[in-house]
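Researcher: For the annotation table, I need structure tokens for Flagellar basal-body rod protein FlgG. Please keep the output clean. Sequence:
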Amino acid sequence: MNEALWIAKTGLDAQQTRMSVVSNNLANVNTNGYKKGRAVFEDLIYQTIRQPGAQATQEAQLPSGLMLGTGVRTVATEKLFTQGGFAQTENSLDIAIEGRGFFQILMPNGELGYTRDGSFQLNANGEVVMSNGYAVQPGLVVPENALTVTVGKDGTVTAQLPDQVDPVQLGNIQLADFVNPAGLQPVGENIYLETAASGAAQQANPGQNGVGSVIQGALETSNVNMAEELVNMIETQRAYEVNSKAIAAADGMLQFVNNNLAR
């Protein structure tokens, strides 16, 4: 009987984890470039009482075995890198990625971070940075007297300066791609870090080598589907309730046995 209690307890833990993932998705429904997560579960080790295929008699074989499961556990929280929607902002420094790829960001510790959040701004030195101040790589500096800044689909950045007919090229926005984006490590601030599971970053200009193009004056919105997450939340709540009832039922059976033994 104690086995049922522990099995149901693992179910409670698993559904609590799933609820945390769903809550995080809903909390970031308006976060630029956010990619929704999902909890992945696996069943725990089984107790084999009778092995399938064992000899029941000298001539007969067991067609199925007797194996008792010991519950469930959360094995991963996977990020789903499907394309989010686009919100038109008409801001020249708002850039969205259409397709695969990540913007490269210089972290304070000197490492490269990667993001889908293209809501860029200028700092006091004219450098193009994220809203948290981290600079885009390769670095871009916009002249103080620039009238307009244009970003092409191939990542070419140009500026129109006063008293000049032809625009001046400031540089290029390069994107990074990974064999397994789901293996990236999210660290907050809309930034991911490279890991052994993601593979090494592969830099390319937008629109080349399978990397997506960039769109100026737009931002990629979260790929969270609120209706889907609300359904997931209801499913999780009901599963949690069922596991709670399993614990209550096992407790009632133990109480029945104890009452009978006390007589």
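Researcher: And a one-line annotation?
Model: The chain has a mean pLDDT of 92.
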